């Protein structure tokens, strides 16, 4: 299937890198230099500068611009697309329908791990497009269909923004090791392995069981965990997800 990405930013590039393995991919953007660099980095991709009257008739569009750019970019599009897959945080199906013509509308929330085919993507929208949407996003990781846009906004706060939270934790853990005297490259190697191993365990174990199994009475983990509790790490995580969800709702009202 041919997919046309509109936007040449971070997320469009992450998606293009992953999707090119199984699809024909075209990327339309406003920055010629960036497009040329993308073509060098992703062999096989087609690049195109966004016209003032960009014909999207019958195309399958992945809309990848910032939410605030929706109006200005959609004003430059003409014709009726086949499927419109939006990745815009918060932006509702109703808003998309008012701005861009398409036969089917789908909201998706992938993440940057799309570039390594490990995105966790939440999807909702026209039921007629469900099979195709799940197929496309399964080719770049895990695809989860939800029934409401509210669920997608909550998922945005976990898996869309989530790589930033986990990267922040990874960096902080490494900083802790450096403070204690271990070389930084070794700390990053440890953290990378730790994240990968824990992710594998999480596939078949409840988080509380993993935590309990590591925490020996009077041991190192109990000492570390009690410090995390003092820093209100759990509470901060819960609040972070809720703040991000509120922001997605706020973006949807603009
Ligand atoms: N960065 C991430 O991890 C994720 C981002 N998203 C969503 O993806 C979308 C894009 O985000 P990023 O790639 O991070 O942003 P970015 O700033 O890297 O890319 C935005 C793109 O929009 C284009 N653009 C902006 N205004 C334009 C205009 N007036 N005319 C033509 N092109 C215009 C820019 O040139 C750029 O190609 C956002 O809507 C965001 O909510 C969704 C999931 C994850
Ligand atoms: O920060 C944002 O708004 C976008 C949506 C999810 C990840 N990045």
UniProtKB/TrEMBL annotation:
Location of the protein in the cell: Cytoplasm
InterPro entries: 6-PGluconate_DH-like_C_sf (IPR008927), NAD(P)-bd_dom_sf (IPR036291), P5C_Rdtase_cat_N (IPR028939), P5CR_dimer (IPR029036), Pyrroline-COOH_reductase (IPR000304)
Catalytic activity, as annotated: L-proline + NAD(+) = (S)-1-pyrroline-5-carboxylate + NADH + 2 H(+); L-proline + NADP(+) = (S)-1-pyrroline-5-carboxylate + NADPH + 2 H(+)
Presence of keyword Membrane: no
Record EC number: 1.5.1.2
Highest rank taxon of the organism: Bacteria
Keywords: Amino-acid biosynthesis, Cytoplasm, NADP, Oxidoreductase, Proline biosynthesis
GO molecular function, one term: pyrroline-5-carboxylate reductase activity
Coiled-coil portions: none
UniProt enzyme class: oxidoreductase
Pfam families per record: F420_oxidored, P5CR_dimer
Positions of the Pyrroline-5-carboxylate reductase catalytic N-terminal domain: 2-89
Record pathway: Amino-acid biosynthesis; L-proline biosynthesis; L-proline from L-glutamate 5-semialdehyde: step 1/1
Residue ranges annotated for the Pyrroline-5-carboxylate reductase dimerisation domain, each copy included: 149-251
NCBIfam families on file: PRK11880.2-4, proC
Known role: Catalyzes the reduction of 1-pyrroline-5-carboxylate (PCA) to L-proline.
HAMAP family: P5C_reductase
Similarity section: Belongs to the pyrroline-5-carboxylate reductase family.
Name of the protein described by the UniProt record: Pyrroline-5-carboxylate reductase
